[in-house]
Design goal:
heterodimer, A: 313 residues, alpha/beta, six-stranded mixed beta sheet, 14 strands, B: 436 residues, mainly alpha, D-Maltodextrin-Binding Protein, domain 2, four-stranded mixed beta sheet, 6 strands, 67% helix, 6% strand, elongated
Chain lengths: 313, 436
């Protein structure tokens, strides 16, 4: 084979040329990704880009048509590795008529926890998430926000090494959104690798360290968030001073009071501007390079495809 | 293995704890017991004693009607001139007025029965039988046959016994057909009730969107089989409870209906009517029925019942699971999709209905071998005796059919359970089977 199993212990999940074809479309079309341990990895893309199909293969729900999944240095085997994976699908749900305590216990045991271990974990999370009184309630008695909190707890109850969240924030109110976000940070801090998909760019910019943009089953872009942004920077700078700027008329794109946006052709020209400001003894309130938002980058990347519309809203 | 056990346990416990399970488990035997008690009670007690007032203008029947039996007392009286029928009944404190007109040319002219609100079928039957009998005896006597001869003619009856050619054991087709019908019907019900339970369970998991969460921990096949086995255990539990409760309840029967025990044990209190009935049925017919019941190979029947019960259930349960996985929210969709499953079950039931009458016709043999109908049809044939090769072939085919169907259903199930919000056609399902 043209690829070998990596012994790089810093890689949690390595996808090699994954393919999944359905009758009508290529849901995943030759995707390769490396996800490092302890990172928060964002999988971005418009609806129907193949994110969920990819995640379902990584959780072992479906098998790839081609390609390999290397989980923590071993070829992925759902029977062995599902214990180490926590998965929250986009379409979420629990047994409505089952008592919450019994339900979590059941799901934890399915993940391979013994009853005693499971009970310890449940107590820990119930305490942490302020859910003590929930044990004998049924899911149908919970509000939507509460049941989402519960769903998250059921996903992480077994301390998975890899946490896979498909659109974790969709349908969450701001309060619960914040709670889940904090938990994601906390888990990542303790070494859990988190892979989540979303089509909301601002969340990615805020939370993720690494990203991959998927469109029509292919990876269009991947890497560190800052790197990606730098890759697409356009040498635009923002300058705010306390008086009118003399000179650089050619470069000024827009100006609002004493707030200027300037467009240079090389990064070095920005130094000339800074020098110019110092020479004229301007009081510099802001001098910053304007990096494109991920949203802008992605609109630009998927432009012309059927999916581009979904990003512009 | 551990995980499938967890799933079985959840399916079992959540169902057994449900109120509806407890209610039906307790109520059905009590209701059945109540019905049986009612039947037995009616059979023994029959109606209240009725008084028949007879005005016999012919003079043939005077003092001839049977007065020894329980339901009726008979009184002979003449109607007064000018008295109305109802006044006549009232004067004698009677319930029924039997008016026999004079016979012309020794042929019965006409007999009238009067009763408030009309004459009941049993009363009419009783009177007609009595009059016929009395009149026949009179005619025989008129023809010169003496009383002893008539009695011996009346008591003679030809006793036909049937035997199985194979082992010369006495057979009783009435008993065989009722056992067969009952068993076949039971399996038919079981497949429908518990099969539909499996389907509803799968639909619940799909519409609640929990299936995907579970399938990230276990294989779809484990989830499907766990549910099927769990519900099978629920069914077996329910059966056991029913049998147990029925056994306990029938111990109470003698207390509820005093005198029943004597009747059943042929004691002294057997009424003349029953004795007469027994005589009429031919000597020891009851004994023959009991003998024939004993002669049934109960080990074989119950063994086969268990085998076909489980085989039939598992065969159909996996199909019901597959259909459940195809349904979205719409229950009407479920109805349409179950048609391919319900058709063979109903077909099996129809073949079974003919098989209890004609157990060795080619249709019955086919029905008892074909795996989709054999659980229902074979049970109807077994009490009559089935050639060993047919039984073994039928069982083998059922096991093969069950394995094939489970394999096929698992393929449909694992794709269907994750497909949301899309109406699925059988054409697509065919593609999944072909290409997965």
């Amino acid at each position: 084979m043209y690829f070998s199993i990596s012994n790089d212990i810093s890689i949690m999940l390595r996808l090699e040329h994954l393919k999944k074809y359905y009758a009508t479309q290529k849901a995943v079309d030759d995707i390769s990704l490396h996800i490092k341990k302890g990172t928060i990895y964002g999988l971005l893309g418009p609806n129907g880009a193949g994110k969920s199909s990819l995640l379902r293969m990584v959780t072992g729900i479906t098998l790839p048509d081609e390609g390999k999944i290397i989980f923590d240095g071993q070829p992925f085997n759902a029977n062995i590795h599902s214990i180490n994976i926590g998965y929250m699908p986009e379409e979420r749900g629990l047994y409505k008529k089952m008592k919450i305590g019994e339900q979590i216990l059941y799901l934890a045991q399915l993940k391979g926890l013994s009853k005693i271990e499971a009970m310890q974990k449940i107590n820990y999370w119930f305490k942490k998430m302020d859910m003590h009184s929930w044990w004998n309630k049924k899911v149908e008695d919970l509000s939507k926000g509460m049941s989402q909190k519960l769903q998250f707890v059921t996903t992480v109850i077994h301390n998975p090494k890899l946490l896979i969240l498909d659109e974790p924030f969709s349908g969450l109110d701001p309060v619960n959104s914040e709670i889940i976000k904090q938990e994601i940070y906390a888990l990542a801090h303790t070494g859990t690798t988190i892979l989540f998909s979303t089509h909301r760019m601002e969340q990615v910019e805020e939370i993720c360290q690494e990203i991959a943009l998927i469109n029509q089953g292919k990876v269009i872009l991947q890497g560190n968030v800052a790197d990606v942004k730098n890759q697409f920077k356009r040498n635009q700078y923002k300058l705010v001073i306390d008086q009118a700027l003399q000179g650089f008329e050619q470069q000024v794109v827009s100006n609002n009071d004493f707030e200027y946006v300037l467009q240079f052709s090389t990064p070095n020209e920005s130094k000339a501007l800074l020098n110019h400001c110092l020479q004229h003894n301007y009081h510099i309130q802001t001098f910053q390079e304007i990096l494109p938002s991920l949203n802008e980058i992605f609109i630009q990347q998927v432009e012309g495809t059927t999916a581009s519309r979904q990003f512009t809203n | 293995m551990n995980k499938i056990w967890l799933i079985i346990r959840r399916e079992y416990i959540t169902r057994v704890r449900k109120k509806s399970f407890i209610v039906t488990t307790l109520l059905i035997p009590i209701m059945m017991f109540g019905l049986i008690t009612l039947f037995v009670y009616m059979a023994i007690k029959s109606e209240e004693k009725q008084k028949i007032i007879v005005y016999d203008e012919s003079g043939i029947f005077e003092n001839q009607l049977d007065t020894t039996q329980e339901s009726y007392t008979v009184l002979y009286e003449k109607i007064k001139p000018g008295e109305t029928n109802s006044a006549f009944i009232e004067r004698n404190d009677a319930d029924i007025y039997l008016h026999i007109f004079p016979f012309v040319n020794n042929a019965p002219d006409s007999v009238h029965i009067y009763k408030e609100g009309g004459v009941s079928l049993s009363a009419k039957g009783f009177i007609t039988d009595q009059l016929d009998n009395i009149y026949q005896i009179k005619q025989l006597q008129d023809a010169g046959i003496n009383k002893t001869q008539i009695d011996s003619i009346q008591n003679s009856s030809i006793n036909v016994k049937s035997f199985d050619l194979k082992d010369n054991k006495e057979t009783n087709s009435e008993i065989a057909s009722s056992i067969g019908y009952f068993m076949g019907f039971l399996i038919y019900m079981v497949i429908f009730i518990y099969g539909a339970g499996v389907m509803r369970g799968v639909m619940e998991e799909k519409t609640n969107r929990i299936a995907e969460v579970i399938i990230s921990s276990v294989k779809p096949f484990q989830l499907m089989m766990g549910k099927i086995i769990g519900i099978a255990l629920v069914g077996l539990t329910q059966f056991m409870m029913w049998i147990g409760l029925m056994l306990i309840l029938q111990l109470l029967l003698p207390f509820l209906i005093p005198g029943l025990g004597d009747v059943l044990h042929g004691g002294a209190s057997m009424t003349p009517e029953m004795q007469q009935q027994m005589n009429a049925m031919g000597t020891g017919e009851n004994m023959g029925m009991i003998q024939s019941l004993m002669n049934q190979n109960w080990g074989l029947i119950l063994g086969c019942f268990l085998f076909y019960f489980l085989g039939g259930y598992f065969l159909y349960a996996s199909m019901f699971a597959a259909v459940g996985s195809l349904v979205n929210e719409d229950p009407q969709e479920a109805q349409q999709l179950t048609i391919p499953i319900t058709m063979p079950i109903i077909l099996g039931f129809i073949i079974m209905a003919t098989s209890v009458k004609d157990p060795n016709s080619s249709l019955s043999v086919f029905g008892s071998l074909f795996p989709l109908t054999s659980p229902i049809v074979m049970l109807a044939r077994i009490p009559y005796g089935v050639p060993l090769w047919q039984l073994l072939l039928s069982m083998t085919l059922l096991i093969a059919g069950f394995l094939f169907m489970t394999w096929l259903s698992a393929k449909i199930y694992r794709t269907g359970i994750l497909l949301y919000g899309k109406k699925i056609t059988w054409k697509e399902v065919y593609k999944w089977i072909r290409y997965s």
